Amino acid sequence: MYPDREALTKVLTKLLLRKTTSHATVQILKRWTFRHGSTFPVEIVSCRMPDGQSLRVFCKYEAGRSHQGHGHRGGLGYEADVYEKILDPSRCSAPAFLGRHYDRPSGDTWLFLESLNGKSIANTHRLNTRVTLPEVAGWIGRFHAAFALDARRFSNIKRYDARYYRGFVNRVIEFSKGRRRRSPWLIAACRRGDEFISQLLSAEATIIHGEFYPGNILYKARRVCPVDWESAAVAPGELDLASLSEGWSPNLRASLERAYLAARWPDRAPAEFTRTLSAARLYWAFRWLGDTQQRFDSHKSGARLAQLLEEAQRWPLI
Description:
Layout: H1 5-16, E1 27-34, E2 42-48, E3 54-61, H2 76-90, E4 97-103, E5 108-114, H3 126-147, H4 162-175, H5 186-191, H6 193-202, E6 205-208, E7 217-220, E8 223-226, E9 233-236, H7 238-245, H8 250-264, H9 273-289, H10 293-297, H11 301-314
Antiparallel strand pairs: 1-2, 2-3, 3-5, 4-5, 6-9, 7-8
């Protein structure tokens, strides 16, 4: 799962000292591995540079693993592309891209990023999270604005299309067999899936994070640092806003919407913004319920079904 010390030293030396012509090497001081909480093996490596300075590097290894999730995840090689070709050139506050390595014997990608000594905003005190969230909404609004005009020029980034959206609706229909007596409204909501899908397809597209939940956002010293960009895609930005605001009070959700609008469209929001945001919330309900049969049957599905019912009831009124 993890490269040996010699192999890792060689790769880090090549990536971190690429501009030097000397025969100096990077010295690995300590490695902290994390075997839980991530799909891919990750570790933080403390290094000593030739000039004596210390550097901590976040390392992520493919290790033969993949979880494409019906198209909303792209794997570690895909995430490395996002960091290298989109985030790093944009100079946004996401973790700095230090390099990537293709391991020929295994065919795996190794990704190296700036190591941030901070917690996600999902793991901080709830009051602090409520204060931070509007700032995060503004950050993603500015990010979406920056990529709205030329999002489609990134040919390597996946695009959400009708087939992608419809797949989750169809799987909800399949997974719900035998449970429809408890949710008699569900099939009617699924039959209206083409309505919210059409709305999402007609909305302005940009580069989105794809899973912009508080657990994927680090925040330290007023620096917003979204991580785990494996689900980045070309799609409406409202999808990111919907995930960020999911589960909060109506007042806080309204605050996040205002912060997002002020950053994304400071002059005037599109007339269809509210309807697109409602469609985005429907998408998230379908996406989690339509992922796997196991997830649909889990104890958490009750809350997702309630979310789907709430948004389905609001939808005709928008």
